[in-house]
Design a protein that fits this description.
elongated, eight-stranded mixed β-sheet, single chain, 4 helices, alpha+beta
Amino acid sequence: MSRSLLALAAVLGGAGLLVTSCATSNAERVNPAPVGEQPTPMVIAAASPSPAAEPPPSPVPEPASCTAFVKPGVLKRSAVVRVVEAGIGRWLAGGAEVERKIAKSHFQGWEIRRLYSGDPCYAAVDLRPLDVVIRVNGKPIEKPEQAFEVLSSLRAASELVVDFLRDGQPQKLTLQIADE
């Protein structure tokens, strides 16, 4: 079950939706006053654009920025809690793809296939495709109940520690979690 890798989700901050609306009303006059002689309508020809005129350039959108970190290497607790509350399914659907890695007939870990490419928060985290996550905060995440336990513990954890293999060599990623 690839969903078990959700414990890594703590490195991602969430995003909200902005919905705006506008309402107008027209007041109707019951008995409008007579206006007398009506003016002759004036017709003004619309100017046609000259062939050399180009539309104004579109504004260049500002690059997305990450707000999940207090500073490099230190996650905001609120960002971690948002991911924990969203759950495993939401995190995976948002841009994570992992696959069970079996070595010598035994579960080795979760191989990262894709991890939020283009997300500036993940760009700041040293995990990449083909890395194999073996433990999070010292605990295995092979079974769903293990992953849920690790994920839930992140709500109050002081750090996020991801043990993984890169090219077969053990690596460790440690991110502090701070109350902002």
